[in-house]
Amino acid sequence: MASKKKKKIKKSAPKKAKPNKATKAVKLNKPAKGPKKKVLKHEAKKEGLHAVFLGLGSNVGDREEFIEQAIFLLGKASGIKVRKKSTSYETDAEGVGDQPPFLNAAVQIETSLSPHKLLAVTQDIETALGREREVEWGPRTIDLDILLYDDEIVSDDKLQIPHPLLHERTFVLKPLAEIAPEAIHPILERTIQELYDEKKLETGGRYDDELPGFKEIKGSAVDDFERW
Predict the structure, then answer these.
(1) pLDDT above 70 for 15
(2) String of DSSP letters for 5-42
(3) Catalytic residue among 92, 98, 131, 150
(4) Hey, where are the domains in the chain?
């Protein structure tokens, strides 16, 4: 009789193994949902869409035309889509000697280009529009600066992102705050609006029209390219 009992115990072991297989199946199904989310994130990155903000400036010739031409050429470049343009603002020149006042603006673009490839495109546009680099901080037909690229930080001999003088320049912060007030400076961890408000106080101006050398150009209001 004892031997029969032992046989029953041996037969019951495989029966207990069935729920174990079911349990294993459930455990395998749970993590299977995880990879699906990762795939979606990977696909979003694979699209290569980066939110980038550029600063534009001109103090030679038809300044507004040069800015508009630069934006037009940006939109024609492969891998770039212009999303927003700020109002253009006239400001006193900062740099070498007596210069005509600048027109300054900011644009938001969406791009699949890497920071350095985007830099090459902006420099090609500057060259195409007659930018000369004989004098540092001198007069220029067009100036294109990468201000922010997602929340990335880049620092090498050719490129620095965020722009190293972004938080120091009211003429850059003003138009940028107009189209991206909640954008965050990845190093200072402050919003653009906060940096602009702080800079205004340092300058001694409470309102925009009280800032020295600041003038809004009529007819060049903010443009939301997404509606097109």
Answers:
(1) no
(2) HHHHHHHHHHHHHHHHHHHHHHHHHHHHHHHHHHHHHH
(3) 131
(4) 19-47, 50-227
